[in-house]
Amino acid sequence: MGLTGGMFASGHTTPRLGIDLAGGTSITLEAKADQGSAINKANMDTAVDIMNRRVNGLGVSEAEVQTQGSRNIIVNIPKGTNSEEARAQVGTTAKLYFRPVLATEPTGAAANPSPSASPSGSGSPSPSASATSGDKASSPSSGSSGSPSASSTPSASATSQGRAVTDALKADASPSASPSASSSAGASTSQAKLQAQYAALDCSKKSARATAGDGAKPSDPTVGCGENKGVWYKYLLGPAAVDGTEVKKARAVYDTQNAAGWQVTMDFNGKGAKKFADITGKLAQNQSPQNEFGIVLDGEVVSSPYVSQAITGGQAQISGSFSQDEAQSLANMLSYGALPLSFKEQSVTTVTAALGGEQLHAGLLAGAIGLALVIIYLVAYYRGLSLIAIASLLVSAALTYVIMSLLGPTIGFALNLPAVCGAIVAIGITADSFIVFFERIRDEIREGRSLRPAVERAWPRARRTILVSDFVSFLAAAVLFIVTVGKVQGFAFTLGLTTVLDVVVVFFFTKPLMTLAARRPFFANGHKWSGLDPKSLGAKPPLRRTRRPAGPVSGPVDPKEA
After folding, report:
1. DSSP for residue 22
2. Is 358 within 8 Å of 41 (Cβ atoms)?
């Protein structure tokens, strides 16, 4: 009664349904150790925590993020949410760096013949103390004003780009170190290789975007790709000046005053604020595009705002023709940090609500059929005793339902299709306990005992057998729960839960009810429909206790004495 009252008081009167019953999306991600981080429990738990916060940051309720084995993470997103956006967020590593832009130009059909031309559509820098992005997609004229040559390799500007890379490398090196001939040769080789990568990079191709900047360390210059209004740009980027881990908080806001649309505002911590002020102060002294810094997220340049003056105060704004969803997505990932590991999407399973409803209906139908068959067997074989068994089954089912309803909000338990299968299997396990008890009672009646002593003598033997049987079932469920993950755990959990409830019901309901029934004439007198008829069971004659005479035993009387 207490559990039932708690269920109604909490307002959770139905079990929480899993993805396969309620509908939704299930994503399986595999961890990859390609960022210098080991795949261990600590990193996997950190990744689960960050993914949970990211999904919750999207307003997704009751999403499940859990590890699967040592390398996989399962993300279950219920119906009624933007599964595509959540799918893009949970597996995104979100390694963020602020890198100075050394050169940039559009690629593909919109390629500019002059790679050194500024892609900014704004004629003058922004006077506000914030980083604002130029509208690259609206500036084809700035590129067409350059040389008419259609050469794809930077010719005249290649030298200036090479000098920019060299300056970036010198700035990153220790000022006290005197470069040797071998180090100078190595630097020249690296610069030549980087210029060649930039010249050959075509960001309009998906394969090129996927590999751009692979293997580059934060302290090294690199190349990257970024999109603005459907046009892909390639970038030559300097060493990272600010790390994304130094962003304390980010949020999406709509600028109504300047009609700039959706923006992402960032608050840096103390260390990040100083770095950001230093790099923006240096960039503000350069000409376009060297006055821009690229915001590089997982190798992609999501924005490249230009800087007109040093940005102090530890705050900045990113604007770049964002939609609301894009701004909120970027702010969400910046707020909750980078994943310690990168992940590869293994599988995505989408279950519609209609399909989930059909599966739930089929599972409940299978459970009802199984329960009906067990009841038919009990009635046919045990007759009157079947009433006690059916009452015990109903009590067990009610307890299971109430506990599952309470475990949903308490520990996040979700009833999925394997869990329903576990409940169906539990019907047989529970009925088996009743059968063991009833058969022990029948054995005692066959020995010639009446019902009341038969119940009391049968209980210790039946109790021992029931405990051993349920322990074996619970042990199997526990092992299955430990060594498996995901939906199979639902089966193991339900099987273990119902096994424990079977012991509770048999000890605290079935046995007391049987003791009370033994006092009723219908059962005590062995009615032929009670299931305890001694004649039908082939009982021996009633056991009688022989009495000894009260006085001393006298021998036979001698007739002669008489």
Report:
1. H
2. no
